[in-house]
Amino acid sequence: MSTTDINTAPIVDEEELRYARAQKREKIGKWVLPVLVIALAIFFWDRIVVWNNIPHYLLPGPGLVLETLIQDWGMLSSALWVTVKITLAALAVAVIGGVGLAILFTQSRYFEMSFYPFAVILQVTPVVSIAPLIFIYVDSRLAGLLLCAWIVAFFPILSNTTLGLNSTDHNLRDLYKIYGATRWQRLRYLQLPTALPYFLGGLRIAGGLSLIGAVVAEYVAGTGGIGSGLAFRILEAGYRLNIPRMFAALLLIAATGVVIFTAASLLSHFLLHKWHESAIKRES
Amino acid sequence: MTLPSSIPPMGQREKLLEMSGVDKIFNGNVVALKDMNLTVNQGDFISLLGPSGCGKSTALRLISGLMRPTSGQIAWEGGMKTGDLGVVFQEPTLMPWATVEQNVWLPFRLRGKSMADVQDEIMWALKMVGLEKFQKSYPRELSGGMKMRVSIARSLVTEPRLILMDEPFAALDEITRHKLNNDLLELREKLKCTVIFVTHSVFESVFLSDRIVVMAARPGRVSSEVTVDAPYPRTEEFRTSADYAELCRKASDALHAAMNEHGARASA
Fold it and tell me: Closest approach of chain B CAs to the CA of A26, in angstroms?
């Protein structure tokens, strides 16, 4: 007990250290917790199957699912490729169509009045109920699947982008007007950047929906023989009571969805992190 | 554009713009502005002072061309060309996705000039407001006062004949506000520019302007004009002088007279 003790005492006090520890815990927990929970879930899945002697045609264990995935990889991977192709193509068309329509809507109120109801009708009618008709009228099975997935995916992009294009700061609008901006300049330099965060929000939803649309459409389309996607493989495996293969295909669909969502989130972060509130990390 | 070496005294300035008999009526019955007559001369620093609803912002929007008068005329001496007008709003009104220099580039960009072509002008404008080191920053990285400076830099980058300011410092704290008042007067000395400044602060209007146009509400109209003949440059010393207090009282009396005009009418 002397004055030197006080002098060498750390500047950070107990509370600050506690805060720093809590921060560190949270940082680690952000990654470790979800991984841990998934690992635990898989572990208990496995244990429940083993402890209760559940036969594999009722509920296969995770090991068997993985085994099937590797064994049937040839067939499943080609099916995955078909599904991914349809999903991405539908998403691409949804982006082009959704953004294009949104721009037309904001350029002409009459156009919006005329065609917005169509967009809503397409959105609220369940795709499962339109799909059979589509497959009657559209010869190409691929085109039919694409159309179904597109119908589901394009609406969030359309409505979000329209909202974004109409959300420009009114003072900035005035400023553009005072400086004599043309309609095209206003769209290019003001409305599109304003709409970007809204569009990206729509893209994240549409990414998941286009996958759902592709899968649902394939269920409706039924047997397709060569060039079938994952949904058809699940149906087929179901008829044959090949439950492990159903799980394996399901796993691939879920993984595809996660990859699409992650990609959209990364794109969003990449485009917005410099300026938009949603992507900015704050102190405190 | 050649700037005069110094601003001539009031009464010897060339005419820049004239509003004659300007009325603005909204929806056919709401009179926002009634019979406004105002001659703006080159080098004037005019404040439009008045309570809310007196049409001061409407007057500004009419001059900027955002709205057309219901009747009457607004005529620019020698006609109005692009780049003749700079505007500063109450909010900084910056594009959050663009850097400071890109924001200042906007008036030129909309005229089809590339960034490289006008790099010097942009740097000059940023230097004028003391932000040359922040050209690559995004607006969110700046404080409220700095954002306002960017907004001012953008308004003067084209060296406009007239700058319109619509309560630009109303949302800022008093310390920042005083600083920006001083800086604005300094800028005006350097640029010899003409400013129309909307405010509801008597003190701000007296400190900044040489002409105060006092306006009254319901219907919005010009009530009187107060001349502030204190010489420029005005500094912090002026802000605490007896002259300043006297001028503030004069302007305040004029403002109260304008408000009572309305009161008398309302109770009648």
Answer: 26
DSSP string, B7-32: PPPTTSPPEEEEEEEEEEEETTTEEE
Number of domains into which chain A is organized: 2
**With an 8 Å Cβ cutoff, are A274 and B138 in contact?**
yes
pLDDT of residue A2: 46
- Looking at the complex, does the CB of residue B238 fall below 8 Å from at least one CB of chain A? no
Query: In this complex, is the C-beta atom of B89 within 8 Å of any C-beta atom belonging to chain A?
Result: yes
Each residue's pLDDT tens digit, A78-109: 999 999 999 999 999 999 999 999 999 999 88
Q: Is B159 on the interface with A (CB under 8 A)?
A: no
Query: Beta B30-41 vs B15-26: how paired, if at all?
Result: antiparallel
Query: A99 and A26 in one domain?
Result: no
Which structural domain, as residue segments, surrounds residue A39? 3-51
* Residue B268: predicted pLDDT: 36
Enter the tokens of residue B59: 């007057």
Q: Which of B159, B182, B199 is at the close of a domain?
A: B159
Nearest to A268 by CA among A219, A193, A196, A167: A196
Instruction: Tell me if B110 and A185 make a contact (CB, 8 A cut-off).
Output: yes
Q: Which residue has the tokens 């996660």?
A: A258
CA distance A97 to chain B (A): 25
Judge if A97 and A8 occupy the same domain.
no
Let me know whether A42 and A67 are in one domain. Answer: no
In the predicted model, what is the mean pLDDT of residues A21-39? 90
Facing A179 at nearest CB: one of B93, B110, B140? B110
Tell me, yes or no, whether B178 and B259 share the same domain. Answer: yes
Domain that holds residue B145: 96-159
Kindly list the strands in the beta sheet with B45-49, ordered across the sheet, starting from the edge strand earlier in the chain: B85-88, B162-166, B194-199, B45-49, B211-216, B221-227
**Is residue A139, in this structure, part of any structural domain at all?**
yes
Q: Any CB–CB contact under 8 A between A184 and chain B? A: no
Q: What are the φ/ψ torsions at residue A60 (nearest 5 degrees)? A: -75, 150
Out of A172, A177, A189, the one facing B109 most closely (by C-beta) is A189
- Residue B128, in any domain of the structure: yes
| Residue range B195-213, pLDDT digits in tens | 999 998 999 999 999 999 9
Q: Are strands B45-49 and B30-41 parallel, antiparallel or unpaired?
A: unpaired
Residue A6 — pLDDT band, cuts 50, 70, 90?
low
> What average pLDDT is seen over chain B?
89
Our count of domains for chain B comes to: 2
Residues A20 and A134 in one domain: no
Nearest to B96 among A174, A178, A275 (CB): A275
